[in-house]
Design brief:
Blueprint: H1 6-77, H2 93-96, E1 97-103, E2 109-112, H3 119-125, E3 144-153, E4 156-166, E5 169-176, H4 178-188
Antiparallel strand pairs: 1-2, 1-5, 3-4, 4-5
Helix pairs in contact: 1-4
């Protein structure tokens, strides 16, 4: 029997390689596409779940901070109009406020906590400068308002102030304790980065 010719061997070998390559392409390309599509779908679902989790956490934390502002507002409105005795303040004030100052109807200090030396000047320089509602504009002449201001200083966290007004006149000014106000944000960080801004876009 005659041995196969060299050209036939080469042709047959090349055809086998081509058929094998075609088989590999036909088998692997759909598999790779399926794997890519499934990975893309899984990543999309994971990103969506992560965003929903972040949005839910942001709403929860912002609600907790807002509740603490409401608590501070209620405490400030509960303070007496007459100058209190040092031991007559409601319990828990030191946890909520860093400093307290009471003003008279003539804008004169009537009572102040030991660390409130610059509180009135700090309040005057804080923003925004929203004018209080005049008694004639309010529903009742004795209606008590509470205003919020912030003061930003380079290299330091912003300070948050509340002022309780009686008939348009400032009676109590308080600086909020940042540990009380921002503890929900610190507890929720968990290796992340949070940025809180006021209505004017200033970072708090």
């Amino acid at each position: 029997m005659k041995p196969p010719r060299l050209s036939t061997q080469m042709f047959g070998s090349r055809l086998a390689r081509q058929l094998f390559a075609l088989f590999v392409v036909a088998a692997l390309v759909p598999l790779a596409m399926s794997d890519w599509l499934s990975s893309t779908a899984v990543n999309a679902v994971a990103r969506q779940l992560y965003m929903q989790s972040q949005q839910r956490m942001t709403r929860q934390v912002s609600r907790q901070v807002f509740d603490r502002l409401l608590t501070a507002k209620a405490l400030l409105r509960s303070l007496p109009l007459a100058a209190p005795q040092p031991d007559a303040l409601p319990p828990g004030m030191g946890r909520v406020f860093l400093a307290l100052l009471q003003q008279s109807a003539q804008d004169k200090p009537e009572w102040a906590s030991p660390n409130a030396a610059t509180l009135w000047a700090d309040w005057l320089s804080a923003t925004p400068h929203i004018p209080p509602v005049q008694p004639t504009e309010s529903k009742s002449a004795g209606q008590q308002q509470v205003l919020l201001r912030t003061r930003s200083m380079a290299g330091q966290p912003s300070r948050v102030y509340l002022a309780a007004l009686q008939s348009g006149q400032v009676r109590w000014v308080a600086e909020l304790n940042p540990e009380f106000l921002w503890s929900p944000v610190h507890d929720a960080m968990d290796g992340g980065v949070w940025r809180v801004r006021n209505a004017q876009g200033l970072q708090l």
